[in-house]
From TrEMBL:
Keyword line: Membrane, Transmembrane, Transmembrane helix
TM stretches of this protein: 153-171
Descriptive protein name: Aspartate carbamoyltransferase catalytic subunit
């Protein structure tokens, strides 16, 4: 039995399973047995894809993963023949459907592979601009405005008056 830990932070992965059941039993399995077969209690069913392989036979499962789901062609290409040869029903389980859970798939599910979106890193080219050249001159410091000085003097005068009032109250 395969154990698959899906970290909470995982993004852009798709786990592909074949469902080894007769077509007339798949609907009941999807409704009642999918979580148990995956070994998890909760599943975001809105994100799960379960469909007959014949629905995408013209395109092929490998092309569907690359063109339809954005998976990395370099990862899918080695398994393309096996993916395209699958019959019956297919289950595609994106990371977002089982994020933060551990899966222990069991029959009738047969794990085919896990594929991810290509990882791209933005180029870190040096920025070229005339404004980036040279040395910054220090800015001149301005003297406080008259209004700021008046406010400070008024605050100091109020504190002195408050101190005089407290002294008079204590003496009296």
């Amino acid at each position: 039995m395969t154990r698959m830990d899906v970290p909470e932070s995982e993004h852009g992965h798709a786990r592909v399973f074949a469902i080894d059941l007769p077509a007339d039993q798949v609907a009941d399995f999807e409704r009642d047995g999918l979580e148990a077969a995956l070994g998890t209690e909760r599943l975001d069913r809105d994100k799960v894809e379960l469909f007959p392989a014949s629905d995408i036979a013209a395109m092929g499962l490998s092309n569907y993963l690359v063109d339809g789901m954005g998976m990395d062609p370099e990862q899918v290409r080695p398994d393309a023949a096996r993916l395209d040869a699958l019959g019956g029903h297919i289950l595609i389980l994106p990371s977002s459907a089982v994020r933060g859970r551990t899966l222990t798939p069991k029959p009738p599910l047969r794990w085919i592979g896990t594929y991810s979106e290509p990882q791209s890193v933005a180029p870190m080219d040096r920025l070229r601009s005339d404004s980036a050249e040279g040395v910054l001159e220090p800015t001149e410091t301005r003297a406080p405005s008259n209004a700021a000085m008046s406010g400070r003097v008024a605050t100091l005068a109020l504190l002195v008056l408050l101190l005089l009032v407290v002294v008079m109250i204590v003496i009296a």
